[in-house]
Request: fold
Amino acid sequence: MINQDPIVQMRNVSKRFGKIQALDKINLDIKRGQIIGLLGANGAGKSTLLRHIIGLYLTDHGQCITFGTDAVKLSSKELGRIGYVHQEGELLEWLTVQQLICYVSAYYKTWNHEIEEKYIKDFDISIKDRVASLSPGQRQEVAILLAIGFEPELLILDEPASALDPVARSQFLDLLLQIIQDEDRTVIISSHILSDVEKVIDHTLIMHRGQILRDNSFDSLREEFLKVTLTSLKGSLPAELPFEYIIDCKRNDSRAIFSVQNPSQQELETKAYDLNCEIEIGTLSLEEIYKIVVSRETRA
Amino acid sequence: MDILIANLKHLYQRRGAWFAYLCILCMALLALLPFWLTKIGLKHDRYLGFLLVSFWAGVFSGVMQRDVLVKPFSFCLPGHRRIPKLFIFCVGGVINLILGCVFLYHNELGSPYVLMTVLAGGFVGMVLYCYGACCTLFELWMLLGGILPWLALSAFILFKWDKALQNTILFWPVPTIFVSFLICFWFWKLFGRDTLARRHCGKLVFDGLNTSLKTRKYLQIQSDRNLTVAKINFFDRLHEFFIHRMNRYEFLSKGRCVWGNLYMVFGKGFATWQIKHVLASCALISFLVLYFGFVGNGDGINLLFVIPALGVLSLDLLPYQNVLFPLGRNEKYFITFVLAVIITFLAGVLTLALTGISNLLEILLSEFGPDADLLSYHGMDIGLFYIFLLVMPIALSCAIVFPRNMIVKIIFVIVFMQGWMIYTGICKQSLMEMIGPNGVLGLLALCWIGFLIVLRYVCMKWSLVGHLP
Reply:
């Protein structure tokens, strides 16, 4: 259940790095309890957007408000409610994992040692090792532990699974599913591995060149785009298929597979009947939807 | 393309080399000194400043070749045994031939000797040049920075050995060329040994200057190899000490954050220390106290008021750049300021200790050496302690504005040291005598207010994530 009060509000936020417009007039409301998938190509502005939310970056224009406070002025109290994993996975290399956990946990009153122990056991983290000697994947696992150990209200994961191996990624997803059981917890997860993300998110933000192309619930996005398989029952399919908004059509004489935007299911079935075809309507994966949205924008 | 030409192209393709050129150019002023002195009509009789330039040019050439040899493919390069020595001798030949021309200005040279003298000067320079290259190529760091250059420099200043060498070049150029040639030939054979590529392949060059994540990880793993049980136990106790101090304060309180930040700044050093670093630091400090006490009639030793302040440049002052901690910009501003005060206090105590030691030495070593004028030892003037307090906020500001840019920090140190030397050379009065106590107090206030403004600006207006590598 989503509380309607936004915990993050962005109003006309723009940020430029030299000649690159990293964020371009971003308007955004993130509500408590949402699990948001932030999608976009490299350089789309995902990390920049996330860093604005926690006040690490200052906006060139506009305002970013987190927990009702200007993000730049976030105090210890508010920052103590935010967990953040950044994609570089850089930690304090000169400490052992145990010392690092002990040091970070000293800052949080709400540090949950049960979660810590369970996580260390599940991920088989060697706590006696120095952080510097860990592989990128192990380092990322430690970073995730540090971000979730104090059970933050807002968890920001910037490419958290990019360095993880398939087994660790699967474990991470299980963990994420546990984390999101708390209805008041908001999670923003930016990732390239969309097949993982779609299992947990309920809202999508698709970014491209510093702009938000889509800000929809995942369900509405799945309803907007459908996958249609049309099989001719007799003879060949006509050269021009009589459907509107066809995207990415692959076909031969008797069979066509395509996506359609904003379709009426009844209309699809009627037209298929008229063509003497069998129709199969299915949903698209997040990756397919993402490709369609971004490729259309690129073409435009 | 010829391999040697490809290597020589590094001289302008490698951006870091341009910084070295700047340093060598500054030192080249030493070589030009006789020309200037002649122009302004002063009597001069010392020509060997150029040897210092030769030496550092050799160090530079050695580093440039190391930069090539460390590449993983250096073993596969055709002629990897021959090219380093060819490169070093090509560059060195040109440089030293030019530098040898310094003797053209010698007043007493007769025409038959001119060419031979220039050649002899060049060959002597070449020996020093090869020595510099040898130190870097064979990683003889103690010889490079620790012992021989300082000893040689001391010998020049204290015992005027340079005059003896200079007279040898001027009046026995042929034997000088012969002996220097033999030494250079020995270096030629040494640089051609097949161990060079094997020694350097895959290693890091410019370790201290390279601040990338990969480099730091490599250095950390390297220091981990030197871990002993005693060091681990020591660091564990240190860890417990700081965590215990943190836990004495409330969660999210400033006290807890200040202790946490102190741990971040100083713990890193304790986690990676090696006994050789500690010994080298002690040796360097002792040497500086002894060496500067004997030079400059008491002005040299006061340089030690500047050096501890410049030491803070190596510290990472802005806290918590790696993990998101519950600390807002205001808190970061406060705890960095507290840290700056603590560091100033500690560096001040060190400076006062050095002042005490040097004054004790002044009593013990006052009439030391054969030449009473040259070898009388001078202690630090406690009345100049305000210099330390003036330099400190400037160094702290630089450390905050350029947290991971080692090159900028080195330039800052060079500029400051040069500035100090020029100031002590030109101004016969101290700053206190020039502007009075109130002026000094005003200047101190100005410097510290300036530091606070810089700190405030960085903490409140900068994108803090920019400090990530």
